[in-house]
Design a protein that fits this description.
The chain is of the alpha+beta class. It has 4 domains: 3-153; 160-261, Beta-Lactamase, CATH 3.30.450.20; 264-350; 356-495, Heat Shock Protein 90 (2-Layer Sandwich), CATH 3.30.565.10. It contains 15 helices and 12 strands. The strands form 3 sheets. The chain has a 5-stranded antiparallel β-sheet. The protein has a 5-stranded mixed β-sheet with strand order 8-9-10-12-11, covered by helices on one side. A hairpin with a 2-residue loop joins strand 6 and strand 7 (251-261).
Length: 495
């Protein structure tokens, strides 16, 4: 209720500061005294004519008429409650006068009851009038509020940065905002009445149909989905869309769509992913080159040096001093150790077993090497793995390699496990250890700001093949790295 309405009805509150209350009290007191005495009765107002005689009414009729008038006045000025209180007080006064003083009981009682009935009806009518008046005022305020809300909604709708449009169950656009013009290239006036299928490719229409069926079944689209449309100039726009079903009286009526143009962002993301893929590919090629040179050149030279030292020590055993022979023996041991180290580094850079025997054999070899080097017991369990693209094999191998390196360097674990499983068109790799664990940040990308690039590198690598990586860890409860990736690279289409 507005301030004007409060001011309008402020006089109806029977507070002590209300002058109408004191007027009613004084008049009721005077009238009641008059009702029970002969005061003022017979007083001439026009010569010898008294008031009852002038009005040609009995004294009781005048009194009851005055009570009725006073009740109406109280009801109008003090509200329903004030009128009801005065009606009750007047009724008590008139009935007492009727039963205690009036010589004609029946006539006086009928007149009193008639007066009270008329007064009650008048109060009810006034209360109804006031209630209707308040109701009309509330309806008017509600209408004004609705009109204001409608104007505000229209302003927000038209000025929204995201494109918003409504289309019926058949796909006919009934409402669109100005951002739709920027998104599609068509003026808003040309969008109304057109079918959304006109702007979508066949794949986009199929996706829109799936969304429509889900919403009509009662499902809720909690997340935005990606959709593509053809603009007025023939170019393609990529949108992030959220859609909800508009229901009226329990029946679906239309669909409201809110879309954000992410064409530039998506192209930038695609360019970054392409650049990252090229960088990682170049890195792997360089690893392969270095591994090949270490294996075919450096390690062979060290192996030749080892044989020469061994031959020299064998031939010189008869004529060289014992100290020199011992020194040659130590040189032989150093060269052997160096040779094994170079072989290990070459295998770590790019194990040939990955190219020759595949992912499963490479992971088993990697686990054995890590177990021999660190003393951590590592168990490998695998299922039959279908043929994988070389890129997928390499990414999964690198993730397992990074995870086992973390187990060796940081976890202080005594046991670890690697499990490979296939789920329909997905392959899953789980690496678990019983080490110290750590507290995870909100996102894996936060590790990069801390200078810990291993887990961030896992996420970037697996994203290139359309996979996901999850890390679960708690202090004192070990760490689990869970990776999923599509079995076929063409599963990435549209991602």
């Amino acid at each position: 209720m507005g301030l004007s309405h409060i001011r309008e009805h402020r006089g109806h509150r029977p507070g002590l500061g209300n002058p109408h209350l004191w007027i009613v009290v004084v008049l009721f007191t005077f009238l009641t005294i008059w009702h029970f005495t002969e005061l003022l009765v017979g007083v001439p107002i026009l010569g010898d004519i008294s008031l009852p005689a002038f009005l040609e009414l009995s004294r009781h009729s005048i009194e009851r008429f005055l009570y009725l008038a006073l009740i109406l006045y109280a009801g109008w000025t003090l509200g329903t409650m004030g009128g009801a209180v005065l009606w009750l007080s007047s009724g008590v006064a008139m009935l007492l006068r009727t039963f205690l003083v009036s010589p004609q009981l029946r006539d006086a009682l009928l007149e009193s009851l008639a007066s009270l009935a008329i007064a009650a009806l008048a109060i009810i009518l006034m209360a109804t009038y006031q209630q209707n008046k308040q109701q009309r005022h509330k309806l008017e305020e509600a209408r004004r509020d609705a009109e204001l809300s409608r104007k505000r909604y229209e302003e927000l709708f038209n000025n929204a940065s995201d494109a918003i449009w409504v289309h019926d169950l058949e796909g006919i656009i009934t409402l669109a905002n100005e951002a739709c013009e920027r998104l599609t290239g068509y003026p808003v006036s040309q969008l109304a009445g057109r079918n959304v299928r006109e702007f979508l490719t066949e794949e986009a229409v199929a996706l829109a149909r799936q969304v429509r069926e889900r919403l009509l079944k009662g499902d809720v689209m909690e997340h935005r989905y990606e959709q593509r449309l053809t603009k007025e100039d023939g170019s393609e726009a990529i949108m992030n869309v959220s859609t909800r079903l508009i229901v009226s009286n329990g029946q679906p009526q239309a669909f409201q769509n809110m879309a954000r143009d992410v064409t530039a962002e998506r192209r930038l993301q695609d360019n970054l992913q392409f650049y990252l893929r090229e960088v990682l590919q170049a890195q792997e090629e360089e690893r392969k080159r270095l591994a090949r040179e270490l294996h075919d050149d450096t390690s062979q030279q060290i192996l030749l040096l080892t044989h020469k030292v061994d031959n020299l020590a064998s031939r010189a055993e008869s004529y060289l001093p014992e100290e020199l022979r011992d020194e040659l023996a130590r040189l032989y041991e150093i060269s052997q150790h160096t040779y094994q180290g170079v072989k290990h580094y070459a295998q770590a850079l790019r194990p040939r077993i990955l190219d020759d025997l595949g992912l499963v054999s490479a992971i088993k070899w990697l686990a054995q090497e890590a177990s021999d080097f660190s003393g951590v017991e590592i168990e490998v369990t695998t299922e039959t793995v279908p043929p994988l693209p070389p890129e997928t094999q390499l990414v999964l191998f690198r993730i397992v390699q990074e995870a086992l390196n973390n187990v060796q360097r940081h976890s202080r674990a005594t046991r670890a496990s690697v499990a490979l499983k296939c789920h329909e068109d997905k392959i899953a790799v789980t690496i678990t250890d019983n080490g110290d664990g750590f507290e995870l940040p909100g996102q894996l990308s936060e590790f990069a700001r801390r200078g810990k690039l291993g887990l961030t590198g896992m996420e970037e690598r697996v994203r290139l093949i359309g996979g996901k990586v999850e890390v679960n860890s708690k202090t004192g409860k070990g760490t689990t790295v869970f990776v999923t990736a599509p079995v076929r690279l063409h599963d990435l289409d549209g991602d």
